[in-house]
Design brief:
Length: 199
Amino acid sequence: MEDRRTLIADSAIEVVARDGVRALTHRAVDSEAGLPSGSTSYYCRTRAQLIALTVDRLIALLRGYVEVSGVQELRSSDADDLLDALTGMIEGLLADYRGELAARSALVLELAGELDTTDLVASLLDPSDLVGALESAGLRHPEPAALDLLVVFEGLLWERTVGRLAEAELDHKHDAGLLGAALARHEHRGGRTIFGLRR
């Protein structure tokens, strides 16, 4: 039974990624999953339940990727190691989770104002995931630095998934430079050079 629910959730993600949230119907999921008509309705009686199943599956998949990446446990005195980890995450997500990223973006936009999307937004990274790494790298105020870093990280993911850079070749150095610029404005303990600037 759990395998069937997972198949339905994964198929719903595919429908949303390809056709948008408004195309998410029980019939569309049955067709995508290759299941007999009415199968999705058996597990999700309402569209709200189908959306909830889809969101929960997305969160589980993306948080699983974050945990495997090791970025939450990263502790290095060199902030460039964190930037390398984040750009590596971007590359890995685009290689293996592009559909999930597109579905996440569509769901966040569609559900904002109707449902609490906090967990979906934080499914990739939350500022708290980066605070330890930024403290180790010497940022005097790691919490606001983490938030700034995630603003750029999410922007890059959006543009590379559904925006202007969706068809562009990945550029690790370019993306690391943009992420580094988000940290360069934050005070660093000890006045060491960081990202080409002195603090």
